[in-house]
Amino acid sequence: MIPLGLLLLLVALFFVTSAVGVVTGSNSLITVPVMFEMGIEPKTAIATNMFGLTFMAFGATIPFYRKGLIDVKQLSPLAAVTVVGSAIGALLVGAVKSEWLPTIVSVAMIAVGIFILFKRDGDEEKRTRKGLVTIVLAFVLAIYGGFYSGGYMTMLTAVFVAFSGMSFAEAIAGTKFINMFSSLIATLLFMWQGLVDYRLGIILAITMFTAAYVGARTVTRLNEDWLRRIFLFFVFALAIKIALF
Fold it and tell me: Mapping DSSP to helix (H, G, I), strand (E, B) and coil, where does residue 217 land?
């Protein structure tokens, strides 16, 4: 059992990262390693974090849906392939060496940041919808998302902006909708494997739902330029942190 002082620190960390992570994603790149440091068994930490992410995704989706930023018809095929991909990823937990993850994620996030930084913005009428490419990338990323999730929403946001013709606001909202399916199926499989710490998970779930709801309401008030700046800042900051430490 985690001492009360450490539990309160963990709750505070999860609240802040969940509120900010509505825009940036990559919560798990911070929260999961901290859980490791607190002595939580690695697989349990990943599974319990995923349990909380499910509630975070639901909490963030509500304000975005009410604001009209989620196109359910467009996102439905992506949700379907995400369920399959995330299930595969969740079943692969333990098969990949944990020391490989920081390098893989760091390189991916730097690539994402560079791509977005130099990407030209097209007119609304000229935005190209590359549905097949989006579906394939969403499936591949879902495997990683079900496995670990760190950086998953960040990379999926970039895919939506690049290939689905979405604005940053629409992409951020869309990833939260997709993450409901990704994290839910992964959580169910982790529960089936007996990896979730429910006592800690319920506390984190309440924290993350509340923080994500507040964060999403704030995001709906920000313009596109600010969302882009916040997203890029955290992408590069987290990538550098992972690469150096």
Answer: helix
